[in-house]
Design brief:
Length: 392
């Protein structure tokens, strides 16, 4: 082995020791989360409703129903998940946290409610993001471990890549008929090779979700350094409290929702940001596909009079912004439907296995090295003893 590869092996091994446990936890939780929508749809009846063909009830009616059940609640987020899915209101209860209230979008009646911290998949998501530590700490531990993991994947690829072309064909397959140590070795190297590209994509998109500089780097790279003025503005639109005269007698949140539906009639899902404690605007996101967060139009309205302040039309967005908005869908594998979900699931499962198979390889080599050393010492001692006897 060349000195360069010895350095790579040292880095690969010890970086694996440092990040292995976190990588395993993050990968296995990501693996579980891939099919969370399908699993929850199968086990929870409240996630589907019958499409009656009637218009949705207004957001103000959903808010009113939630306020009846939770008088002190602030309905910060309102979802219309789709024609065959419920509406959802994320009610802020202050010190008591959030209550997710599901309602029939055609009648406005509450069908189910839950605390986010009691939902298994939300717990899995928090483990994946923060290891159940305080977010400010857990985010950095996960982020640094993911960066280390990317280095490990690249060094592992360099170390494993066969020198001779004749060796490449057999190096890309697992020898299932071999001894278990050989199978474990192949599982680590061969599966690691096949998962590398997907694992790096999942790692980068995860980092982009968690860290603004990574998101900004993706944005600039996709835009080839161009700055799009309206996208580059960091200040959010502000409502003017001095202009409280409404456009009509309708609640402003209803005006905002009606406008978004008119401008994006093909959208399947709508998200309304309606935080009354903020001085900003009421935001409405119109998403092309239910439970998918890419391909969206956005609108911002003055919360006092319903005037449109700003719009983000999908067709006018830069490649960088479009790519950033695809981060979540890429990260969980739903960008291309069931096929990409299966790919993300398998890649995450392989990533979870790599610290285990790698540790077994290291343990086997360590035991083998000790065994060889013991045999050599015994042989030398035996020869020395014979030599002493002969001299006597």
């Amino acid at each position: 082995m060349t000195p360069f590869k010895k350095v790579l092996l040292f880095c690969h091994r010890w970086l694996g020791f440092i990040s292995g446990l976190v990588v395993f936890i993050v990968s296995i939780t990501g693996c579980i989360f891939c099919f969370q929508d399908e699993i929850q749809d199968a086990i929870h009846n409240h996630r589907t409703v019958q499409n009656t063909g009637k218009p949705y009830v207004q957001p103000s009616q959903l808010i009113s129903e939630v306020k009846k059940a939770y008088p002190k609640a602030s309905p910060d987020f309102i979802y219309y998940f789709g024609t065959e899915r419920p509406a959802g209101v994320y009610a802020n209860l202050g010190k008591d946290g959030y209550e997710i209230v599901y309602l029939n979008p055609y009648t406005g009646k509450i069908t189910y409610h839950e605390k986010p911290q009691t939902n298994f998949f939300i717990i899995v998501e928090y483990i994946h993001l923060y290891l159940l530590l305080p977010p400010a700490i857990g985010k950095w531990i996960v982020g640094v471990s993911v960066i280390i993991f990317m280095v490990i994947m690249i060094t592992g690829l360099i170390l494993w890549w066969p020198k001779r072309k004749s060796d490449r064909k057999r190096s890309f397959t697992i020898k299932w008929g071999g001894r278990w140590r050989r199978i474990n070795y192949d599982l680590h190297n061969v599966l690691g090779f096949y998962a590398t590209s997907i694992a790096i994509i999942l790692s980068i998109t995860g980092l982009a979700i968690a860290f603004e500089p990574v998101s900004k780097a993706i944005y600039n790279t996709a835009n080839v350094g161009r700055n799009i003025k309206y996208e580059d503005e960091v200040t959010e639109p502000k409502s003017d409290s001095l202009k409280r005269a409404g456009i009509s007698n309708k609640p402003v949140v209803d005006i905002a929702f009606a406008y978004a539906r008119q401008q994006a009639p093909e959208a399947e899902m709508f998200l309304i940001h309606n935080d009354p404690a903020l001085s900003g605007a009421i935001g409405v996101g119109a998403y092309a596909k239910s439970l998918h967060y890419s391909n969206a139009n956005g609108f911002e309205f003055d919360k006092y009079n319903g005037k449109l302040l700003k719009s983000y039309i999908y067709d006018k967005k830069s490649p960088g912004l479009k790519l950033n908005e695809m981060n979540y869908d890429i990260h969980v594998g739903q960008i291309g439907g069931l096929t990409t979900k299966i790919i993300a699931f398998l890649a995450s499962l392989i990533c979870a296995s790599l610290p285990i198979t790698g540790f077994i390889i290291w343990l086997g080599k360590r035991k083998k090295s000790k065994s060889k050393g013991k045999k050599v010492r015994d042989a030398v001692h035996h020869k020395t003893h014979k030599r002493v006897v002969q001299q006597a």
